[in-house]
Amino acid sequence: MSLSGYSIGNELPSGRQSKAKGMVHDISMAATKAEAEQAFDLFIETFEAKYPKATVCPTEDRDVLLTFYGFPAEHWVHTRTTNPIESTSPRFGCGRGEGRAVARGSPA
Questions:
Q1: Does 76 map to a domain?
Q2: In a domain? residue 43
Q3: How far apart are the C-alpha atoms of 93 and 86, rounded to whole Å?
Q4: Is there a contact between 73 and 79 (Cβ–Cβ < 8 Å)?
Q5: Is 103 a domain residue?
Q6: What's the rounded Cα separation, in Å, for the pair 46 and 41?
Q7: pLDDT value at position 94?
Q8: What parts of the chain have a pLDDT lower than 70?
Q9: Mean pLDDT over all residues of the chain?
């Protein structure tokens, strides 16, 4: 489990990791920056007292972690994905053959 590269799962007992993972998901999939900030605050509030190591780095880098919400909403789908084809352009990966490689020796 990670929050933009932070391995918070290592700092939590296994019984709490699934709840933390769901909360991190809520942060990253929030519809607005305000909702993301609210989910972020809830994550920190929930885990800071008992597991401070899991919240130190995310708390320090809060602004950087929420920078995503400064981009136009129409780009979020492509920014959220880890698939390099989907993240580069909306026209690739649509299933219509765009971006398909041509085999060597084949006419273009």
A1: yes
A2: yes
A3: 6
A4: no
A5: no
A6: 8
A7: 47
A8: 1-6, 81-108
A9: 77
